[in-house]
UniProtKB/TrEMBL annotation:
Gene Ontology MF terms: RNA binding
One GO term of the biological process aspect: RNA modification
Protein name: Pentatricopeptide repeat
Keywords: Repeat
PANTHER family found in the cross-reference section: PENTATRICOPEPTIDE REPEAT-CONTAINING PROTEIN (PTHR47926:SF396)
Cross-referenced Pfam families: PPR
Record-linked Gene3D superfamilies: Tetratricopeptide repeat domain
InterPro entries: PPR_At4g14850-like_plant, PPR_rpt, TPR-like_helical_dom_sf
Amino acid sequence: MKWFYGYVKNGFTEDIVELFQKMFIRSIKIDYVTLRSTILACAQVDSLEFAKWRDEYIGKSEYKIDTFVNTTHVDMYAKCGSLDLARNIFYRTPKKDVFVRSARIVVYGLHSGG
């Protein structure tokens, strides 16, 4: 669903949030491109509720251990104001590369925790 990306880039983030939630409720499989587009939507709407929806979906999917997805989740939770949830995602990430570690540093910088 590459058109998700187009919607996000053109400012229709609330529509993407709503559509993703409907897809989640109906157990529709989300592809990697769509998942990445929802990351951009989350960053633009700063919705902790939506971030939790995505995290619930990812926790049940093959993307649970994906370093890129987890790195963006750490960043997303930081932008939504949840240091604890960002930390939890960091710890569940099996491969802690420079990007996920940098995202964690940003979390603490945003929340004056380090």
